């Protein structure tokens, strides 16, 4: 067994599989994970704030930026994690596999880390296609695994810290791709005693060609992976260039869904800017939300309540009030976003009509028949902001029904799921 | 790790030990928090399915993907013994880049065959684009190889 593990380790050794490269790639991956974790937590708490939380309303495209970064850094994780696993692949055959309780826990935490990371990025990516082939809740599991990942990452860094510190800087060298001591080398090179006839066993180097595995390993050895000097540094450079090109390719060809600058290069993202009714993409249509009748009803009115005081406004009445125009993005939790121009009534002017004080928060109800975001809450920082509108037009036209006709909410810095469409009722919370 | 217990450059053994303790402590906390969140938000069968997916991901990578990549590397080294090592690497880089993009795009092609929410979700013809991507990548890779061979050839002549 030990022999097999050593031989496997030896076989998969390569100049690009060494601790220095593991550190170089690991740093980038760790950074990408932390960026995903930070932006992900921000997205989570925007949707499920703790009671004391207040969020910035400036700049108005803050969430567009943070969630765009989340998805983009997340996509960059694919090449990075595969590269990282590539550099450490020989460690899989480490021998002895386990030396004690400490090493058992260390290896277990790596297994958890690798498994959780692969699942996290996969379900995250597929979620942006609105494709859910897994038998568990996306948001719940994506959220829980993010702690598991960051936790097992911290353990991993703690365990490997001496090696990480050693190879942190380039001038500290690359170290051996794999260090076999003499005894291990002897074992790798030892004759396969059982197979060879006794006289042959004495011949130096007579170990190899015995059985299929022997022949296979000999064949592998004939294509030497470890070369001295310049060839080794060429393959290291080649490896890093490949990783760089891979990351650049997946990022540049998809990030146009989140960042306008990269839009011309958007070949593969699940979303494109500038399409859809009124040049704004849609997540939930009026048909899906079952509002095609209620939203078009001639007697539609927006009710606004503060305790016992209730007012209601028809669309014509809203249009007759002072109108404000703002440029704010729809920024989806799935990472795509679209800048747009909205015109409507300032929310803070509306709530003043029911004598809501400064610092009032709102409960917002949509005409939607069902769904997790039919009833949501809006913190006082958004209610009071001059850029928060009950929007009536989009890009100069009457709001399309798929964008929330007769009236929708648009506020700075909030995820799209909280920009409630097809407004029905606003209640001031004291 | 055993036997390689050394302090890094510019870090005393004590700082090293302290940093490691803190990292591992934070890590255990994170794991506990993750477990608590998972248990509070999902029932037992769902948690088992998450674990099965994690295990499946590890097996898929370690037992299927990695050996394939390894074998392709060995075959390439065998086949390419007479080809310049750099040219071989450029070709490998092209293939790896294409495979990475394919990894992201193939699920889109499949997801588009299922009922989708509306026309603004998955709007492209991803299969066609994937084909053109491979074509473009092949041309690009060939171009880089040619440029490299020219430059390398000229360098050899000059010398
Ligand atoms: C290690 C990598 C990652 C970490 C640590 C991470 C972490 C998080 C966290 C904490 C959230 C908030 C969950 C919630 O609202 O309860 C989140 C949301 C999200 N993440 Fe990630 N994530 C990672 C990778 C990815 C990747 C690769 C993608 C896609 C390419 C992705 C897509 C999403 C999406 C779409 C959401 C929004 C979910 C929603 O609110 O409906 N994530 N992420």
From TrEMBL, chain A:
One of its GO terms (molecular function) is oxidoreductase activity. The keyword Membrane applies. It comes from Subtercola boreus. InterPro entries: Di-haem_cyt_TM, Mopterin_OxRdtase_euk, OxRdtase_Mopterin-bd_dom, OxRdtase_Mopterin-bd_sf, TAT_signal_bac_arc. The chain crosses the membrane at residues 21-42, 62-83, 104-129, 141-161, 239-262. Keywords: Membrane, Transmembrane, Transmembrane helix. GO terms for biological process: respiratory electron transport chain. Pfam families: Oxidored_molyb (PF00174). CDD domains: SO_family_Moco (cd00321). SUPFAM superfamilies: Oxidoreductase molybdopterin-binding domain (SSF56524), Transmembrane di-heme cytochromes (SSF81342). Coiled coil: none annotated. GO terms for cellular component: membrane. Residues 297-429 form the Oxidoreductase molybdopterin-binding domain. This is Molybdopterin-binding protein.
